[in-house]
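hey so i finally got around to running the thing on that chain from the lab meeting. sorry it took forever, my laptop kept dying and i had to restart like 3 times. anyway pasting the input first so we r on the same page abt which one it is
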Amino acid sequence: MGDMGVYPLNAARYSVGLEPIAVTAQASTTRPEIYKEVEETMKFDLEFPGGATASCEASFGKGMNDLMVNCSKGWYKLSPFQAYNGINGVTSNGTKLDATINNEQATQMDDDALAIINNTNVMVPGEEGLKDIRVVEAIYRSVTGKKRVSI
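ok and heres what got predicted. didnt touch it at all, straight out
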C-alpha cells in the first residue's frame, strides 16, 4: 500500500475532487515466502461526501493498470492510467484520450529544484502527500480492525 497503493488512492481523490470520509480495506498475500514484510495485494473501498465511492486495488503480484471512472453523465477509462510514456483512454461518448507525457519524475524534480532556487511554490505541495498518508493510515487501521474506518 505504501508503494503502489498511493497511485490508485491519489487517482480516486483527484477524480472525485474530494477527500474520502471512510475506508474499508483488505490485505492479502498469496506468496508469503516473497512478501514477508509487506502485503502482496491491498483492496480498499473509499467513501466520499455526497455518496461517491471508489473501489481500488494495488498489488505486486497482479498485473493491472486501469482507471475506470463512472460519472453522472458518462464515464472515462484510462489504460494504462499510469505510465512513463503517456496515457491512453476513451470516454463514454467515444472521445479518445491519448496524451504523451514527459518523464513525470524528472519534471517534478526539476520543478522542485526551481522552486527552491526561485523561492516559489512547488508543483505538488507536501500537503497533498499528507492527505494521502492520512488515508493510508486509515486503510491499515481498517485491515487491522477488519472494519470500516472513518477518516
